[in-house]
Structure prediction request, 298 residues.
Amino acid sequence: MRPGWSNRWRLWRPVSILHAVVVAGFLLFLLLPVYWLIATSLSSPLALVRMPPEWIPLPPDLTAYRALLTGRADAGSAETLTTFTIRAFQYALRNSVIVAAAVTALALALGFLSAAAFTRLDVPFGHAVIYLILLGQMIPPVVLLIPLYVTATRFGVLDNLLTVIALLTALHLPFVIWILRSYLLTIPKELEEAAQVDGASFPGALLRVTFPLTLPGLVAAGAYTFMQTWNAFLIPLIFTSSDTKRTVTVAVAMFVGRHYTDYALLAAAGVLAFVPPVVFALFFQRYLLHGLASGAVK
Prediction:
């Protein structure tokens, strides 16, 4: 061992142990609620009230998941309302998929066209407009809820998924424009000019040359928009009222009854609600980081 290495090892070892303890404690703090949610969803009603609590439900009870996926509550349910709530939750899962997919597609389409206009065309006051869009992103959505609700009431478009899709698209569009604009600034205009020399029109060069090169940025912006839309709560809560129009984040709260709460069903609904965005984030993690980093180096 080289001279001085033993001293470095003596200093490094306590620091590394302390670092490992801090990281382990932080991970425990973050993951323990998630584990308890999953464990609760796999526990029977009797196991949930047992003291001391069972940290590992053995054997796991899949009754809550079976009820949510089949739409039929257990015969021993304490409330006949449970079956109705389960069916409303199934509607909510479908609505969340529709809303998240529609908002993501609209935000990407409008965001790409807007970003292309700001980077490829001579837009009057374009520099000021792009910062005005950023300023709009800084306004808290809760400030706009009352005027938006009054407007939706007067036009008779409350309790409509199209209204929720339009509002969420408007909410996430400024971020998508900024991400795609930053990414398009890294793509040389000469590629489109070369395609136009070969006979392509400007829209054709934009869609056939620039659009494929923008895919990492589109995936990054799309993944962010999908996850934020899926987790949206305030707008779907205020602008929807019927059980067939709610989204999954709102429907989970319906499992809390006035006189009785089935905590296993509530936990299972929570698990089914957070699984899609988590799987989506894990699957697109590489593209998300690459897209965000690539658009930020200009």
About this structure: Residues 5-67 form one domain. The radius of gyration is 25 Å. The chain has two domains: 5-67, 79-294.
